[in-house]
Amino acid sequence: MPELPEVETIVHDLRRRLVGRVIQRVTVILPKVVAAPAPEEFARLLAGREITGLGRRGKYLLVDLAGGWALVIHLRMTGQLVYSAKARTFPKHTHLVFYLDRGALRFTDLRQFGRVHLVPVRELDRVPGLRKLGVEPLGPEFKEHEFISRLQRSRRMIKPLLLDQAFLAGLGNIYTDEALHRAGIYPERIAAGLDAREARALYRAIREVLAEGISFRGTSVQHYVDGAGQPGWFQNILRVYGKRGVPCPTCGTPVERIRCGGRSTHYCPTCQPRI
């Protein structure tokens, strides 16, 4: 699933290509990807609207439109949002195409889990999941002392807690595994059991790994591509995620995989001791 760095990269790519463009028409190929309103109304409301801005909240991509409307797009597991300068034949699993006054934007999704909402900006909180998002880990509202205080109040395992979008917005399996490794924290540790030094290290590791993920244009281990259809590079420097049996780059111990909170989890048993 595209996480914060991947969605941020897509937003950055598409912003310079889409802002100022006008949606001339929309073709809905797979109706179920349009969560609201009904597909016919969706296409009617979008026709003739100018794209005025792009942004991100957690793993959601937000497209601002003239007239006080917004597209809210969640790519889920395998969704892709790619701009083409020329409208052409689109690849298999393309479910939605926005034809612009210059080029086209297509939504492609192999697993068909992604969803698109069109809502008035004043009603963004109606989108399920969006209104419950926690703080942005790269934003000024993500403060170290508040993060530590929240950890100290939680009896949950640290990895499932970090994956909870109501706790932090945008973290997923890849960057959580990488942050926990950098901080030297075993994924099944109870959050309240972390001491102040460990909590500070985790705070720094989260911000560091997300910033690096953006600078390397995201992680392409399966389906992710950027807004131009190109893969990211962060997979080339992953330390533990997807590295079962590979020597840890810090200590040389083979990386192990467990199930933590129902999710496949990679860690180094030496760098991240159970304690």
Q: How many individual helices?
A: 6
Q: Can you tell me the residue ranges where pLDDT is under 50 for at least 5 consecutive residues?
A: none
For the termini, the CA-CA separation is 31 Å
Percentage of residues in DSSP E strands: 15-25%
Summarize the biggest pleated sheet.
5 strands, mixed
Mean pLDDT: 97
Sheet with the most strands: spatial strand order: 2-9-5-4-3
Structural domains: how many:
2
- Radius of gyration, CA atoms, in whole angstroms: 20 Å
Return the CATH architecture of the largest domain.
Orthogonal Bundle
Query: What is the top-level CATH class of the largest domain?
Result: Mainly Alpha
Q: Give the overall form.
A: elongated
CATH topology of the largest domain: Helicase, Ruva Protein, domain 3
Helix content: 25-40%
Helices and strands: which structural class? Answer: alpha+beta
Order of helices and strands: HEEHEEEEEEEHHHHEE
Number of beta strands: 11
Q: In terms of topology, how is this protein built?
A:
Blueprint: H1 4-18, E1 23-28, E2 34-36, H2 39-46, E3 51-57, E4 60-65, E5 69-74, E6 79-84, E7 94-100, E8 104-109, E9 115-120, H3 144-152, H4 158-163, H5 173-183, H6 196-215, E10 256-260, E11 263-267
Parallel strand pairs: 2-9
Antiparallel strand pairs: 1-7, 3-4, 4-5, 5-9, 6-8, 7-8, 10-11
Helix pairs in contact: 1-6, 3-6, 5-6
